[in-house]
């Protein structure tokens, strides 16, 4: 109970709970919208989804500052690739939060003349680029670990006959099957990297659809949003599962 209270007392925790509720409503309304006698339920689900979205926008009003602080921190990283990817990601995320704040002003009626489609498109572009930078960082981490594993296999240095190394050394990376087996072993050994990769891939569904790059439907976006939210809740509740910057 204390853990739940601590989790919900944090802005990020409340945002993730609101986000999970929002995308659950999106998925449910998509699944039942064509069923007879479900019109009122669908309307209620869509109203709840809209309320959750507005609440999340209010929670995120100060996140631009957090993103800029994070960008300043990532400029100090020693490795050039994570430094570039994470700094670019945080800067574009700060721009996304600016667009998000403008959209919030429109949604609450403080600035009714705002061109919502234009700002929504800009927000999607910023979010999309931020996710691409995060995925580039994830791929760099995976590639580095793959290279280390291949070198370990070739040189046989520091070989220990434990279960993990037996599994690792039985994998050959000279064909596609071996590559995927080795990739599986790498992600299995590094849960934070796996969770970060899953979250970023799931988050892509929204901006891909908004920008018209890959059109899906609210069901797919809702399902991906639920998975991403659950990963976010898990990493907030267990910080050791969050990929370090």
User: What's the total count of β strands?
Assistant: 0
Q: Which residues form runs of ≥5 with pLDDT under 50?
A: none
* H-E order: HHHHHHHHHHH
Query: Which sheet architecture does the biggest sheet show?
Result: none
What percent of the residues sit in helical stretches (DSSP H or I)? Answer: over 70%
Number of helices: 11
Notable features of this structure?
single chain; 245 residues; mainly alpha; 11 helices
SSE diagram, text form:
Blueprint: H1 2-9, H2 11-32, H3 39-59, H4 63-74, H5 80-107, H6 116-155, H7 163-169, H8 176-189, H9 191-203, H10 205-210, H11 218-237
Helix pairs in contact: 2-3, 2-11, 4-5, 5-6, 6-8, 6-9, 9-11
Explained architecture:
- With 245 residues, the protein is mostly helical.
- Helix content is 78%, strand content 0%.
- The protein has helices spanning 2-9, 11-32, 39-59, 63-74, 80-107, 116-155, 163-169, 176-189, 191-203, 205-210, 218-237.
- The longest helix is centred in the middle third of the chain and has 40 residues, at 116-155.
- The protein starts with a helix and ends in an 8-residue tail after the last helix.
What does this entry show, briefly?
By secondary structure, the protein is mainly alpha-helical. 78% of the residues lie in helices and 0% in strands. The two termini are 30 Å apart.
């Amino acid at each position: 109970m204390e853990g739940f209270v601590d989790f919900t007392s944090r802005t990020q925790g409340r945002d993730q709970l609101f986000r999970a509720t929002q995308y659950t409503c999106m998925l449910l309304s998509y699944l039942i919208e064509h069923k007879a006698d479900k019109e009122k339920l669908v309307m209620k689900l869509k109203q709840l989804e809209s309320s959750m979205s507005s609440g999340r926008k209010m929670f995120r009003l100060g996140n631009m500052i957090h993103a800029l602080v994070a960008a300043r921190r990532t400029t100090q990283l020693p490795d050039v690739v994570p430094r570039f990817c994470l700094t670019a990601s945080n800067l574009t995320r700060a721009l996304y939060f600016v667009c998000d704040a403008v959209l919030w002003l429109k949604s609450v009626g403080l600035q009714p003349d705002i061109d919502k489609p234009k700002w929504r498109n800009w927000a999607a572009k910023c979010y999309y680029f931020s996710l691409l930078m995060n995925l580039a960082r994830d791929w760099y981490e995976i590639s580095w670990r793959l290279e280390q594993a291949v070198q370990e296999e070739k040189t046989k240095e520091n070989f220990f006959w434990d279960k993990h190394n037996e599994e690792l050394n039985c994998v050959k990376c000279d064909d596609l099957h071996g590559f995927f087996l080795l990739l599986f072993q790498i992600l299995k050994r590094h849960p934070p990297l796996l969770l970060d990769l899953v979250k970023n891939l799931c988050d892509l569904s929204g901006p891909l659809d908004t920008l018209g790059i890959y059109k899906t439907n609210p069901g797919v976006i809702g399902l991906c949003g639920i998975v991403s939210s659950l990963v976010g809740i898990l990493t907030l509740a267990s910080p050791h599962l969050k990929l370090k910057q």
